[in-house]
Amino acid sequence: MTVTIIPPDLHDPLLVLLAGLAIDAAFGDMPAVFARVPHPIVLAGRGIAFFERKLNRPNRSERSRRERGIVTVIVLVGAAALLGWILHWLSRGSLPAAVVEALAIAILIAQRSLFEHVTTVGAALVSGGLPAGRSAVSHIVGRDPMRLDLHGIARAALESLAENFSDGVVAPVFWYLMLGLPGLFAYKMANTLDSMIGHLSERYRSFGWAAARFDDLVNLVPALLSGLLLSSAALFAGEAMPGRAFAVMLRDGRKHHSPNAGWPEAAMAGRRGRGARPVARRRHAKRDARGHHPRIAALPAGLPVAGRPRSRCVADGAYHAARVRRGGREAASSAARSRCCSR
User: Fold this and answer.
1) Domain-wise residue ranges, the chain
2) Backbone φ and ψ of 8, nearest 5°
3) Which of 49-58, 176-185, 221-230, 269-278 has the lowest mean pLDDT?
4) Among 330, 342, 325, 298, residue whose Cα is nearest residue 17
5) Residues 6+ apart with CB under 8 A from 64
6) Nearest-angstrom CA–CA distance, 249 and 240
7) How far is CA 285 from CA 118, 206, 258, 276, 281, in A?
């Protein structure tokens, strides 16, 4: 009997994606590297700032500024997708190419950074109390930390953990699995556009309209996936309550002012029957749906819940994405989504 050994496909999305996630888990944001060269997101930000300076002038009408904002989104997202396609085309079919693609994934998916920032908030609350907690949480939330008490800081950190698990981990993985590097690059540009100009302030209300709406669109499916993943991951997190997490997600997911952030935040809130209520930012609620304050202890408890979904979803989704590219993109795209959602 002859045994044939089939070498692995170096560009199998499963292998490349898992390699990228492993690099990110090992090295994080790579500050030593990006102290010397600009991070890709910094370069994206410079491009956005250039377009904003040239096209978003106060003397223009609201309609004109909105139209120019639409052009900005089309041009920059299209350019990012094209850059991703060029990089993939230039580096196809070799080991160095696979390494380059894995490095791109590691740089653009922020799983370790998210974990570290939220861990820092919990440690600061325990060791330094309210002042240290406010200082730490100010790095991951946009609200005024001086208005937050201990419970408010814990709630804000958990909300940020849930929302950024969707934006910073699940959504980039999802778009990489669907469209490869072009999808990953385009998504990160869309997300950066929303972060910089997708606001309701006087300056950005019209110019940033398209950026905000497009970011909502590209996060619709990943946000739902994130909620489902956080709910199912509660099975493996000690006292967490997966059934409660799923029920709270269904009940409160649509109550958030954002069309997407409510799903993962509500799932995180319900995992132990307490935590960050997804409407807290809008209603300034100090307690969750059951009248409980989120506890400082909920921070370390929330981290494993957010960490559990990654490996199973990524492995299953990447496996089916590999089948997509070998034949029948449409059918296998659906398979990748369903396998991820079913966990």
Assistant:
1) 13-341
2) -65, 150
3) 269-278
4) 325
5) none
6) 14
7) 21, 30, 17, 9, 8
By the 10 Å C-beta count (0-12 exposed, 13-18 middle, 19+ buried), 27 is classed as middle
d(CA 275, CA 277): 6
User: Which residue is associated with the tokens 């929303």?
Assistant: 194
CA–CA separation, 124 and 154 (whole Å): 11
Q: Are 170 and 233 in contact (CB under 8 A)?
A: no
| pTM, rounded to two decimals | 0.78
Question: How many angstroms separate the CA atoms of 320 and 223, rounded?
Answer: 20
DSSP state of 142: S
Half-sphere exposure in the Cβ direction for 73 (13 Å, CA)? 26
Q: How confident is the model at residue 243 (pLDDT cuts 50, 70, 90)?
A: confident
Q: What is the pLDDT of residues 156-194, one digit of tens each?
A: 888 889 899 999 999 999 999 999 999 999 999 999 999
**What do you get for the CA distance between the two ends of the chain, in Å?**
40
pLDDT in tens, 3-14: 555 555 666 888
Token duo for residue 19: 């390699």
